[in-house]
């Protein structure tokens, strides 16, 4: 696996569905119907379970990570459930590799509003005010996902663990990637290139919590590279936070909402602090609806 293009992504339906959830939640200023949100996230979880099984079969003996067997393995890591440290490590590595591939696939699928569209949607607002609105809405969207997945713990039937953790992780990372991209647009310093190249650039910005830096020859997500390791490190931290959403009854929903809101806000402000040090390019606002999809 030498680059993001050569990653063996057998199933990207989870990435597509998570991108749709991230876009809808980030762009609305009204609470989403809880049943519709739960159904959408359950769809992500089902796709995550199927995709993770495919990835697990290719990860080597003992690396199957989806379903109830994976749940036992994940819970057993560090809890004396009879799994060896090596087995738990292989399963965790397989999950991170699969999630990394899904996040790379999700980037180009996110609908990103350009600077003109943002200024048209928020007339009379300064760049700073638009950035704050984007951060607040993204933080609210992240909290909504945390609350919804946390409520799964109170249901009689749960998605197969760790599929629900993968679903929350993908949805929240999608919200964060969209925020990172639109903050760059708001400040007039968007990434360049086609959808895949811009997606990788914003993934690098997300992983390193700073603005996009142009690298001659383009950005490549190479296995074993510092960027790939940083993406996995960030995803591992996100998985740990997502497990708080699986607390008993609705305590997980509260914990997930609070943790997600705070983390999304911190990320957004880290990006803004970096972008403020760069030249800002302004364009005239345009009328009309948001862009229908990723810009090419």
**Shape type:** globular
Structural class: mainly alpha
Number of helices: 10
Kindly report how far apart the N and C termini lie: 26 Å
What is the H-and-E element order?
A: HHHHHHHHHH
Percent helix among the residues? 55-70%
Question: What are the segments in which pLDDT stays under 50 over at least 5 consecutive residues?
Answer: 1-10, 60-83, 154-159, 280-296
Computed CA radius of gyration, to the nearest angstrom = 19 Å
> What is the total number of structural domains?
1
* Count of DSSP strands: 0
Q: What's the rounded overall pLDDT mean?
A: 74
- Can you summarize the main beta sheet? none
Strand content: under 5%
Q: What is the quaternary state of this protein?
A: single chain
List the helices and strands and how they pair.
Blueprint: H1 13-27, H2 34-57, H3 67-76, H4 85-106, H5 115-121, H6 127-151, H7 163-186, H8 195-208, H9 226-243, H10 251-275
Helix pairs in contact: 1-2, 1-4, 1-6, 1-7, 2-4, 2-7, 3-4, 4-7, 4-8, 4-9, 6-7, 6-10, 7-8, 7-9, 7-10, 8-9
Task: Give the key terms.
mainly alpha; disordered C terminus; 10 helices; 296 residues
């Amino acid at each position: 696996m030498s680059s993001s293009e050569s990653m063996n992504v057998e199933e990207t339906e989870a990435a597509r569905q998570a991108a749709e959830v991230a876009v809808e939640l980030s762009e609305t200023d009204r609470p989403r119907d809880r049943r519709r949100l739960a159904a959408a996230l359950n769809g992500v979880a089902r796709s995550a379970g199927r995709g993770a099984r495919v990835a697990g079969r290719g990860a080597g003996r003992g690396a199957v990570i989806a379903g109830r067997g994976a749940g036992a393995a994940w819970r057993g890591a560090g809890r004396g459930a009879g799994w060896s440290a090596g087995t738990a490590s292989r399963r965790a590595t397989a999950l991170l590799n699969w999630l990394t591939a899904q996040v790379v696939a999700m980037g180009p699928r996110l609908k990103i509003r350009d600077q003109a569209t943002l200024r048209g949607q928020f007339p009379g607002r300064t760049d700073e005010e638009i950035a704050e609105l984007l951060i607040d809405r993204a933080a609210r969207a992240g909290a909504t996902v945390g609350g919804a997945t946390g409520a799964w713990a109170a249901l009689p039937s749960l998605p197969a663990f760790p599929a629900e953790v993968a679903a929350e992780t993908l949805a929240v990372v999608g919200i964060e990637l969209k925020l990172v991209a639109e903050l760059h647009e708001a400040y007039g310093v968007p990434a360049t290139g086609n959808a895949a190249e811009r997606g990788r650039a914003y993934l690098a910005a997300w992983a390193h919590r700073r603005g996009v830096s142009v690298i001659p020859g383009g950005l490549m997500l190479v296995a074993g590279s510092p960027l790939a390791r940083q993406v996995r490190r960030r995803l591992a931290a996100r998985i740990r936070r997502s497990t708080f959403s699986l607390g008993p009854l609705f305590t997980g929903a509260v914990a997930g909402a609070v943790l997600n809101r705070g983390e999304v806000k911190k990320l957004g402000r880290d990006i803004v602090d970096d972008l403020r040090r760069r030249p800002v390019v302004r364009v005239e606002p345009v009328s009309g609806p948001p862009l229908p999809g990723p810009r090419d």
